[in-house]
Specification:
The complex is a heterodimer of chains A (272) and B (256). In chain A, 41% of the residues lie in helices and 16% in strands. With 272 residues, chain A is of the alpha/beta class. Chain A is globular. The model of chain A is unreliable at 268-272 (pLDDT under 50). Chain B contains five helices and 14 strands. In chain B, α3 crosses α4. With 256 residues, chain B is of the alpha/beta class. Chain B is elongated, with a radius of gyration of 23 Å. Chain B is 19% helix and 26% strand. The chains are: A alpha/beta (272), B alpha/beta (256). Chain A binds chain B through residues 150-151, 153-154, 156-158, 160, 199-200, 202, and chain B through 156, 158-161, 174-175, 177-180, 193, 195.
Chain lengths: 272, 256
């Protein structure tokens, strides 16, 4: 039974593409057949984060408009053979997407893959609507700060009303992923606490990904952080989140700043 | 910040009921329109300037061009203000898409019970002495008994959602997010945190109240008188309160 998972947030820059790539790679490493679709037509980033920018020939819009077959547009990852991606167009805009076209592509992908991850663009316009329209599961990515929380709340309202599942009367399975969490700032009250975010958004927590320089490093190398440095704190958080998506029950712990003895003596900031 | 320093105009949103005439064309259309023409010529003044609701349920099958039907009614000087009995989507592209939606589905049956027969006057009667239509208040009293007096929402109201229920109270079992709004004809009860806007008393006026478990609202209003968070201050913020109208000012008092 294949699942369509949408990674969305409302607010921009919170970590949707990072999450799509990292979760996708973690699921693929766990043996699942995964495809990640970039729905950010005109501002594509997924191909950069996955390191596939030099292999893009055909894209989502080409397939929607019938200029290319799905198999021609899919790019298989060089590191994991069960992971593929479908890039967005950089030259067009979201108006080139049609609901029938996207429906057709997702139906075709359901036959081949266990997980179809839709990397949503920011906002609540057509691109974001298309990405969530056919979803079975949603991961709402939120930073622990108030504008991100309010935008996520808006997006949750839309997940409950504008998806096919919602229109058929079913309740869409939604998960919250807190990203760029800085435990020191949360303790000082500069960032919202986990409980505060959960009180406002009221959907189950999938995981907490700490703020880390590793994410930028991995992105610059064109490799999802779960593949580039699986021992790093964000990678471990994403791998656990992937396992929770697969049904495992793992307790969620808010990442605490861990300072080893040496770094306490020499006073340097801990390498997460 | 004192309330005197903010001289903003008051937003007064009121509701009112009017009697509209329901015109329901039937198939075959041509003979029906001929009959309508005959009736209208006999009672010329009766239909003039009255709001008309077109009920297209009886003719919406059989390849009927709904836009043409509405055009035919409009060309006879019928002032169409609303549509019922068919899916609004069927009107797209006809130029009639912007008609307000009225009763649908379950609501329609309740309203059909409350509809009253209107006797159209016969020939040669001047428009002024047309049928005595009972006051709008009585009509709404009939209609109201068929419909529930409160709207219950047992989930969170998310940012950007707007819940409008003119016929009575709104009860939310859950929180109302920042950026959401509740607009009620009567009172508003929130068994959770109220972070958005609550506008009460559109119909019942100054007797409406607003209740919530945690007051963190952006704006509260009863019968057009409104207050914002900076008015009630920190000592009521986050508390369980009831809000009532007290001689043109909103009074926020603790519930426990």
């Amino acid at each position: 039974m294949s699942k369509v998972l949408v990674v969305t947030s409302g607010k921009g820059g919170v970590g949707k593409t990072t999450t799509s790539a990292s979760l996708g790679a973690a699921l693929a490493k766990a043996g699942q057949n995964v495809v990640i679709i970039d729905f950010d037509v005109g501002l594509r980033n997924l191909d950069l984060v996955m390191g596939a920018e030099r292999r893009v020939v055909f894209d989502l819009v080409n397939v929607v408009q019938g200029d290319a077959k799905l198999a021609q547009a899919l790019i298989r990852d060089k590191r994991i053979e069960t992971l593929s991606m479908l890039p967005a167009s950089q030259t067009r805009d979201k108006d080139a997407l049609t609901e029938e076209g996207v429906d057709r592509i997702i139906s075709e992908l359901r036959d081949k893959f266990d997980w179809i991850i839709c990397d949503s663009p920011a906002g609540i316009e057509k691109g974001a609507m298309m990405a969530m329209r056919f979803a079975d599961v949603a991961v709402v990515v939120t930073n622990p700060e108030i504008s991100s929380v309010r935008d996520s709340d808006r997006i949750i309202g839309m997940l409950d009303s504008k998806t096919r599942q919602a229109e058929n009367g079913a309740k869409l399975e939604k998960h919250l992923l807190l990203t760029r969490f800085d435990p020191a700032r949360a303790a000082r009250g500069e960032m919202l606490k986990v409980e505060d975010v959960l009180e406002i958004l009221a959907i189950p927590l999938l995981g907490i990904v700490p703020e880390s320089a590793e994410v930028l490093t991995a992105s610059n190398l064109g490799c999802p952080v779960t593949l580039n440095n699986p021992e790093s704190a964000p990678a471990r958080a994403y791998i656990e989140a992937a396992r929770r998506l697969l049904g495992e029950k793992i307790e969620i712990t808010a990442p605490v700043e861990r300072r080893g003895l040496m770094s306490r003596i020499f006073g340097r900031k801990a390498m997460a | 910040m004192s309330s005197e320093s903010l001289k903003l105009p008051k937003i007064l949103i009121r509701g009112r009921s009017f009697m509209a005439l329901i015109v329901a064309p039937e198939a075959p259309l041509e003979p029906w329109l001929a009959a309508l023409d005959e009736q209208m010529s006999r009672s010329a003044g009766f239909f003039a300037d009255r709001p008309i609701v077109a009920n297209l349920a009886a003719i919406h099958d059989a390849n009927q061009n709904l836009g043409a039907v509405l055009d035919a009614l409009a060309s006879r000087d019928l002032r169409i203000v609303g549509l019922e009995g068919v899916d609004h989507a069927l009107l797209s592209g006809t130029g009639w898409e912007r008609l307000p939606k009225l009763a649908q589905g379950r609501e329609m049956r309740a309203q059909a019970m409350a509809d009253r027969e209107v006797i159209v006057p016969g020939a040669a009667e001047p428009a002024e002495s047309a049928v005595e239509l009972e006051p709008a208040a009585a009509a709404t009293a009939d209609a109201k008994s068929a419909r529930p007096a409160s709207l219950l929402i047992d989930r969170a109201v998310r940012s950007g959602q707007s819940i409008v229920f003119e016929d009575g109270d709104i009860i939310v079992v859950g929180s109302v997010s920042s950026g959401a709004e509740l607009i009620a004809g009567g009172s508003i009860h929130v068994y959770g945190s109220l972070r958005g806007r609550a506008i009460a008393g559109i119909r019942t006026g100054g007797t409406a109240r607003i209740f919530c478990r945690k007051l963190m609202a952006e704006l509260i209003a009863i019968d057009g008188i409104y207050d914002m968070a900076e008015h009630w201050g920190d000592n009521r913020h986050g508390c369980a309160v009831q809000v009532e109208l007290d001689a043109d000012r909103l009074k926020v008092s603790p519930l426990e």
